[in-house]
Specification:
This protein is an all-alpha fold and 180 residues long. Helices cover 79% and strands 0% of the residues. The longest helix has 25 residues, at 21-45.
């Protein structure tokens, strides 16, 4: 909480001095979400680090029993006391990357698609399906409302992406039972 209090205080100072505050906020939120996604992968692969770093760090927030139960049942908390907080930070980064793709910023398009896959994998590890569903619905709405041209092409792209998402969900649910 101290980290985010300081971060938001610094953002407030920067916003007061700049007219271009949206880019400043996005440039701060994006790396925070990337950090939490990377922490989710790291602690998923290294349970000893999770039990020696995260569990004692957040012992005042939630019990070690609850954190152990969540971890053993496939709910990855990452570097947060629970998976819902972790999923929120990661979803914010997914929204930022997707909005830059929808806006037509085709620079580093392949890297952005890779980041979306990386972030979506971290969300799947948290087991927070609702966070992911709301983000997907929001992204779809923004995608269809962003430009009225090429509507048929958008529907075709949506159909392909939807089929791919269903296939990924079926495969991921076999590896992460918390998705079901």
């Amino acid at each position: 909480q101290l980290f985010f209090s300081i971060t938001f205080y610094l953002v407030f100072i920067l916003i007061n001095r700049s007219q271009d505050w949206i880019k400043i906020v996005l440039s701060i939120v994006y790396p925070i979400g990337m950090f939490y996604a990377a922490a989710t992968y790291f602690f998923r692969l290294n349970s000893e680090a999770y039990y020696s770093i995260v569990v004692p760090l957040f012992s005042n927030y939630t019990s070690a029993y609850q954190q152990n139960y969540a971890y053993l049942n496939g709910f990855m908390n990452g570097f947060t006391p629970n998976s819902a907080i972790n999923a929120f930070y990661i979803i914010c980064s997914i929204g930022i990357v997707m909005s830059s793709l929808i806006a037509g910023d085709n620079k580093n398009k392949l890297i952005k698609i890779g980041l979306i896959i990386f972030l979506a994998g971290a969300i799947l590890m948290t087991g927070k399906r609702a966070h992911l569903m709301f983000a997907i619905v929001a992204i779809i709405l923004v995608y269809f409302m962003s430009n009225k041209k090429n509507v048929l092409n958008k529907y075709f792209n949506f159909l392909i992406i939807g089929i791919a998402a269903i296939i990924v969900f079926i495969i991921a649910s076999q590896h992460f039972p918390s998705l079901l």
